[in-house]
Amino acid sequence: ILHWRALWVWKAMPSEQTRISAGSIDPSCVSRSSQHLYRANKVADISPTLLESWKRYGELHRKCAPSNWTEVLEESSHVNSSCKFMIYVETHEGLGNRILSLLSALLYSMITDRVLMIDSRKEVGKILCEPFQGSSWLLPADFPYGEPWFSSLWFPEIVKHAPDLGQAIDKNFSVPIVHLHLAHVQRETDKLFFCNEFQEPLSHVRTLAWSSNQYFVSSFFKVPWMWRKLVTLFPGSRLDIFAQLSSLAIAPANSIWSLVSRFYNSYLSCSKSRVGVQIRTHSRPDLASFDPLVNQIVSRCLTSHHLLPNLSSSSSPSLIEFEKQQQQQHQVDVSVFVASLQGKYYETLRDEFLQNGTASEELVSFHSLSSEGAEWHNLHQASLALAEMWLLSFAHHLATSEFSTFGYISRGLARTRPWMLKIRGTELHPEGDVCYLSQSSEPCTHFPQQPDCSSARNISTEHREWIKRHLGGCQDQRGGLQLL
Ligand code: GDP
């Protein structure tokens, strides 16, 4: 109760650092109450209907989660108890993809009264707090995961052998479990999940398993039955659904938060302005490519759009004037947090400002938490990635890389529209602007699925109008879908 109250009373101005009163902190998950106090933007207002639904969902979780899983999974057919389940399958993707998929599974579970459970052997359960008071979302140790050498890296044995949606349709949904394959590539039968007519029969299946790498929240709004539920949960015209959902459900565990909080308070909190820059290259850069990329990002994006002060030119004040100025005030004006797999981007940015200074003589400091070099998919890297997503989200001004789900998480948490860097491979897009202002803080659904079913074509006028107003293409992915 206390942490929700802390959330409502927060009204910070940019660049204010606020002390957190110890009384409002939940010791099992410090970030839940504190993270909002670090953000430059005022916390997301959570819709009262969503809050109410979240409360009811928590009660359902407490009632159903401590189940006898062998019984649940072996039951021959349809539901006869009131408890239904959703098993979130943690795939071997980057953390950004996994969080987007998790939030989609959670929202679907909320509107279909399914208790969401996650794999306790994997990383997400280790780096995030438990979202429900008095109930755990971790599958228990006695869950029948199967023999380790038989089960694939991702799937519990039971999920691997579960019927998919096509097979469930063939069996008239008389199955105890259905595995929904909702990744970026889908077969025609998997896509049928987004058809209205299969939602009702699916609701009779006791357990669903969700394996995906996409943010399907935008796609849910195209399904008439889901749309009706969702517009009640998220009324009004401001659709910052990621911000609202993550504010309720996603909070870094204490082990990660201690790193985030220490880093923020050591390096970022004391400056007048904070800037976050995420440089995501999708191939390994060679040494000669760092300087040109950083020069372009600085001159054609960060300074030209006033995220950072201009670099010095010959008309700048002299060294003596600079000395006098520094003797009067010692505060760093801008602190820049740089996230990238390649530490060299951070070093090159820092050196550029160190060597040239700024025209206004403002001081800019640069900071980075890690330089992993490549993707490893282990707990250590996932922990660092989560910490960096959160550190980026504290910025007053944000520049993130196109197409990166890592960047989507930070902008969604920050509830801000960042500048999007048009990085192709290890270079910036050669023509036109190298960055542009994002149209929304919502993640882009890279591969929304277009099922071939009548319900996808026959929608009401009201629904059609809503779609016209609130759903659009993505700026960084042709064929993508985004809530606006
Ligand atoms: P995307 O590939 O940019 O869409 O982002 P994902 O988060 O899905 O996958 C990239 C993965 O690479 C992350 O989960 C991290 O493990 C790693 N990674 C990429 N960029 C960074 C970074 O800036 N910092 C850290 N610590 N890890 C990164």
UniProtKB/TrEMBL annotation:
GO biological process: cell wall biogenesis; cell wall organization; xyloglucan biosynthetic process
Organism: Selaginella moellendorffii (Spikemoss)
GO CC, any one term: Golgi cisterna membrane
Keyword list, A-Z: Cell wall biogenesis/degradation, Glycoprotein, Glycosyltransferase, Golgi apparatus, Membrane, Transferase, Transmembrane, Transmembrane helix
Pfam family for this entry, one: XG_FTase
Cellular localization per UniProt: Golgi apparatus, Golgi stack membrane
MF term (GO), any: galactoside 2-alpha-L-fucosyltransferase activity
InterPro entries, alphabetized: XG_FTase
Membrane topology: Single-pass type II membrane protein
Group of enzyme by EC: transferase
Function: May be involved in cell wall biosynthesis.
Main location: Golgi
Family from the record: Belongs to the glycosyltransferase 37 family.
EC number, as in UniProt: 2.4.1.-
Protein name (Swiss-Prot/TrEMBL): Fucosyltransferase
Top-level division of the source organism's lineage: Eukaryota
